[in-house]
UniProtKB/TrEMBL annotation, chain A:
Organism: Rhodobacter flavimaris
A Pfam family: BPD_transp_2
Topology with respect to the bilayer: Multi-pass membrane protein
Major location (coarse): membrane
Keyword Membrane among UniProt keywords: yes
Subcellular location: Cell membrane
Organism superkingdom: Bacteria
Keywords tagged on the record: Cell membrane, Membrane, Transmembrane, Transmembrane helix
Transmembrane stretches, start-end: 6-31, 43-62, 68-89, 96-114, 141-163, 195-216, 245-265, 271-289
The protein, known as: ABC transporter permease
TrEMBL record, chain B:
UniProt-recorded name of the protein: ABC transporter permease
Coiled coil: none
Statement: the UniProt record of this protein carries the keyword Transmembrane: yes
Primary site of residence: membrane
Membrane topology: Multi-pass membrane protein
Compartments, as annotated in UniProt: Cell membrane
Bilayer-spanning residue ranges: 26-45, 76-94, 101-119, 125-145, 157-174, 206-224, 245-268, 280-298, 305-324, 336-357
InterPro entries: ABC_transp_permease
Species assigned in the record: Rhodobacter flavimaris
Length: 307, 363
């Protein structure tokens, strides 16, 4: 069966891989979109992602329920976001630097508490077999879509609608675009930003739980290797739009899946170079979409990264 | 506190008011360090471990004996250089966090070149390797600076992406084209020729990297505080528009300072390979670049202050093994400590100018 597909196995594996790999990137970039729309940047989501992965895995091992793991991952993420948000509400404290520190602290705490959970096996999150119509095992494998991916897609649509058409969405955008305007409306910018960072952290925590409970599906110290940071960079590329985050995450998932896909058809040359593909693609995207002269379209006015 | 206040006022009356204002720059980070350590102590208590034991083991493992001092100072060498990779761009208002990538590539360049230098006399060979390591590191971090200047790409994100790319590149080279077939368990480049190994400092068991690191800190302090270049950089760091209006070449400064920082981090990679490992392998990505970020922030981006702070952090890292064995704590404990201290030091930025004791009262 394997050999019948020939080179078609590569795009198929890339599509399947894109769906599998993109989910955590999608969740982190949605969370970061929410945070950045409020006018703050949380670079620490890499740490939140790793800690969420550890917390979800540990919970699933101890309780036997992967969904309880996702919930705990989200709660831990919210706590990290809350810490970031509260600290950044202190005047003169730099949100980018705090993000770097939270990255260090989050991964440190995850490795600290995660040591006993490297060996045990946790139950996986369930997947929906959308490839039932095909006889080919490769197609079935590629279209085995995890529930969290579907939830992520729904969340992207819901977030896009909420930002555009609801009162909390409008409040968030006002706070993100002008602190002064928000104050004039009687809003409390620091509190709203802190809330947005906490919710953004919860999203990243869910993304982390996907990493440890579905794909790659185990807990170890190399589990994220920069996916959280790439997701933060992607938000700029996605122009702070949740729908664009979805497409961008798929694109990056595909780039990440290229190496393993080529390896599956016997191309082993430069295997490690393919690990670098997502980083180089992120950098290329940043170079293409950044500019020194004009403000970035769609950028929240209060965002320190674009000032 | 009242006694300190009295001393301060007396100093002020004697005409040394600036001394008091400067002491704020020392006191605030030291206080933040103490607060961070206290929070970490509470964390240890929740884990059922004794903070007193922890301090005792850090002292014993990092600073307690001649042997532990050697260990500490050997680790301080790459940390000094990694911190410079953060502190130099910081004077221009840039937050560069990808020093790890420059260290790794500097080490790979050293390993790749050093394996083929058996023919060369030691001074020539070592000079070639140093040039290669510094060039690679300088180009790598200089790219982040150039992207920032020409394309407005955020240097914090781009430098970290470049660092991840560098580590993937090292894995590719060390496992593939540059791999020594004799290195079975741990893929490495071919070992450096024996003449290309840099020895210890005279009379100590600490390698030359420490001396070079300290020298680099001092030279960069002179560059920043005592030269026209450094003055221009400080202006641009304060206000880019003002610097441009003054006709300063901001682009050259940005690229120059990031590249210099990267070159110094690349030098750390050279020393790691030529003194510690003997060949380039995955051990190069030991996290020095990340600890360097914390050191630079603790030193408030002052390259002279980096020297004591780097030695302190090196001592804490050197004691890590002892703490793990005696207290049954995982190796990530030191990362937790670093994270907490980092947050504490950043929060202390809010304290400047707010502590009444540092405000001059006389005039």
């Amino acid at each position: 069966m394997e050999s019948d597909l020939g080179l078609w196995a590569i795009p198929l594996a890339v599509i399947g891989g894109a769906i599998r790999v993109s989910t955590p990137i999608l969740f982190v970039s949605l969370g970061e979109t929410l945070t950045e729309r409020s006018g703050r940047i949380n670079l620490g989501l890499e740490g939140t992602l790793v800690f969420g992965a550890m917390a979800a895995y540990a919970t699933a091992v101890l309780s036997g329920s992967p969904w309880l793991g996702v919930l705990v991952g989200a709660l831990c993420g919210a706590v990290f976001g809350l810490i970031h948000g509260v600290i950044c509400s202190i005047p003169k404290v730099n949100d980018i630097a705090i993000g770097i520190a939270m990255m260090l602290l989050g991964t440190g705490l995850a490795f600290y508490f995660g040591k006993p959970f490297i060996q045990p096996v946790a139950p996986d999150l369930p997947a929906i077999p959308l490839g039932w119509w095909s006889d080919l095992p490769q197609v079935q494998a590629a279209l085995n879509v995890n529930v969290l991916f579907v939830i992520g897609l729904i969340a992207a649509l819901a977030l896009a609608w909420a930002l555009r058409a609801t009162r909390p969405g409008l409040i968030l955008r006002v706070v993100g675009d002008s602190t002064d305007a928000a104050r004039a409306m009687g809003l409390r910018p620091a509190m709203i930003r802190t809330m947005a960072t906490a919710i953004g952290g919860a999203f990243a925590g869910i993304g982390g739980s996907y990493l440890s409970l579905y794909y790659p599906g185990s807990w170890n110290e190399g589990i994220s290797s920069g996916q959280g940071l790439m997701a933060v960079a992607l938000v700029i590329f996605a122009r702070w739009s949740p729908i664009n985050c979805f497409w961008a995450a798929l694109l990056f998932g595909g780039a990440g899946a290229l190496g393993p896909a080529l390896q599956s058809v016997g191309v082993t040359q430069g295997y490690y170079l393919f690990y670098a593909a997502p980083y180089i693609l992120t950098l290329g995207v940043l170079i293409a979409t950044s500019s020194t002269s004009r403000a970035l379209t769609g950028a929240p006015g209060e965002l320190s990264i674009t000032k | 506190m009242a006694a300190v206040e009295q001393i301060f006022r007396a100093t002020e009356a004697a005409g040394f008011g600036s001394l008091i204002r400067r002491s704020e720059a020392v006191a605030v980070p030291v206080l933040a360090l103490i607060v961070g350590a206290a929070v970490f102590g509470l964390f240890l208590l929740t884990q059922g471990k004794s903070p007193v034991d922890f301090i005792a083991y850090v002292w014993q493992g990092g600073f307690g004996s001649a042997f532990s001092w050697q260990n500490t100072l050997s680790r301080a060498a790459p940390l000094l250089m990694a911190a410079m990779c953060v502190a130099l761009p910081a004077r221009l208002g840039l937050v560069v966090i990808g020093g790890e990538g420059a260290i790794v590539l500097g080490g790979v360049a050293t390993g790749a070149l050093g394996a083929h230098l058996a023919w060369a006399p030691a001074p020539l060979g070592i000079t070639l390797m140093v040039i290669a390591a510094m060039a690679v590191g300088g180009i790598w971090i200089g790219m982040a600076g150039a992207l920032r200047h020409y394309r407005g790409v955020n240097e914090t994100i781009s430098s970290l992406l470049l660092s991840y790319t560098a580590i993937a590149l090292m894995n590719h080279l060390v496992e593939g084209p540059l791999r020594d077939p004799a290195s079975l368990n741990k893929p490495s480049t071919a070992p450096l020729a024996e003449t290309m190994r840099v020895g210890p400092l005279p009379g100590m068991d600490v390698h030359w990297g420490l001396a070079l690191g300290v020298l680099a800190c001092i030279l960069c302090w002179i560059l920043i505080e005592r030269t026209a270049w450094g003055f221009a950089a400080r202006i641009a760091g304060g206000n880019v528009r003002a610097a441009q209006v003054q006709g300063l070449a901001v682009g050259k400064l940005v690229i120059g300072f990031t590249a210099l920082g990267g070159a110094i981090a690349g030098l750390a990679g050279f020393f790691e390979v030529s003194t510690v490992h003997g060949s380039a392998n995955a051990s190069l990505a030991a996290g020095y670049g990340y600890t360097g970020i914390l050191i630079a922030f603790l030193a408030r981006q002052n390259t002279l202050a980096i020297i004591p702070v780097a030695i302190l952090l090196a001592g804490i890292e050197a004691s890590s093994g002892l703490v793990q064995r005696r207290m049954g704590l995982p190796d990530a404990t030191m990362q937790v400590l670093q994270g907490i201290v980092f947050i504490s030091i950043l929060m202390s930025d809010a304290a400047y100018g707010r502590l009444a004791i540092f405000k001059p009262k006389g005039n």
